[in-house]
Specification:
The protein is α+β, with helices and mostly antiparallel strands. It has one domain. It contains three helices and six strands. A hairpin with a 5-residue loop joins strand 1 and strand 2. The chain starts with 16 loop residues before the first helix and ends with a strand. The structure holds zinc ion.
């Protein structure tokens, strides 16, 4: 005898936009909590500045952000995409920053492109670009 399974009818409602936003905020908080401060992670760094230019696939500047990090600041180095994906995509600058600091460079220019699909199953990617300038000052004597 095959066991008989009853199929429960389930409403196909995923999280709505507001719930998604809350989830993203919780995720961000969790990440900051885990990330530690700049001093803990990179004791040789006195000051870290990240300049972000968000650029649309057409080449228009969407937004410019400058972030300053001091020794007591949390190492949250991710940037949410401001392009057509509506914030689903994000850029993680962590590995780049790590590389810059481990090689003790003072500055680094980087560009990334958001590969997020416009919607699930879409063939189109967001394609927005992030230009990112990383500047690092090191503690004297280190
Ligand atoms: Zn995007």
């Amino acid at each position: 005898m095959q066991p008989v399974y009853k199929h429960k009818k389930r409403k196909a409602a995923g999280p709505n936009k507001n719930e998604k936003k809350v989830m993203r905020e919780m995720e961000a908080e969790r990440r900051i909590g885990m990330a530690g401060t700049l001093k803990e992670r990179y004791p040789s760094v006195q000051r870290l500045t990240i300049q972000l230019n968000f650029i649309s696939p057409q080449g228009h500047l969407l937004e410019q952000q400058t972030r300053h990090y001091g020794p007591a600041d949390a190492c949250d180095f991710s940037a949410t995409c401001l392009g057509r994906c509506g914030g689903t995509g994000s850029f993680d600058l962590e590995s780049k920053i790590k590389e810059v600091i481990s090689t003790r460079r003072a500055a680094s220019d980087n560009t990334g492109t958001c590969q997020e699909k416009l919607y699930p199953g879409s063939a189109d990617c967001c394609g927005s670009r992030l230009q990112c300038k990383i500047e690092v000052s090191y503690q004297p004597g280190n």
